[in-house]
Amino acid sequence: MDMPDKIKTYCPYCKKTTVHKVKMYKKGKTRSTAKGQLHHDLKTKGYTSKIAGKVPVYKQAKRQTVVLECTVCHKKHYKTIGSRTKKQLNLKRKE
Ligand SMILES: [Zn+2]
């Protein structure tokens, strides 16, 4: 799926429609001291594999998230693209 690298969209900080730079969202490192992770570690303590429960359903395609940077106030906000795509987004430069 193609997407332009500059789009006009609403900025929640300027409270009006401005031009935004589009970048791909990159997931950061997960903290080992996060509350949910500690809870999971405590629950699986003493066991070698997964805990019993619901079998996870794996979707074939993922929803893509992009980072939008306002060219006026230089603040960033995120946008998730509604439709699922099997391939990563291709940011194309608009001439
Ligand atoms: Zn702005």
The neighbouring-strand order within the major sheet is 2-3-4-5
Give average pLDDT, whole number: 86
Q: Structural class from helices and strands?
A: mainly beta
Query: What is the CATH first-level class name of the domain at 1-26 and 61-77?
Result: Alpha Beta
The level of helicity is: under 10%
- Would you report the number of β strands? 6
Describe the secondary structure blueprint for this structure:
Layout (H helix, E strand, L loop, with lengths): L1 E3 L1 E6 L4 E9 L10 H9 L21 E6 L5 E5 L9 E3 L3
Parallel strand pairs: 1-6
Antiparallel strand pairs: 2-3, 3-4, 4-5
Bound molecules: zinc ion (ZN).
Zinc ion binds next to loops.
Q: Would you kindly provide a written description of the structure presented here, covering whatever features stand out?
A:
- By secondary structure, the chain is mostly beta strands.
- The protein has a domain at 1-26 and 61-77: Nuclear Transport Factor 2, Chain: A.
- Helix content is 9%, strand content 34%.
- The chain has one helix at 35-43; strands at 2-4, 6-11, 16-24, 65-70, 76-80, 90-92.
- It is elongated, with a radius of gyration of 19 Å.
- The two termini are 18 Å apart.
- The mean pLDDT is 86.
- Zinc ion is lined by residues 11, 13-14, 18, 70, 72-73, 75.
- Zinc ion binds at residues 11, 13-14, 18, 70, 72-73, 75.
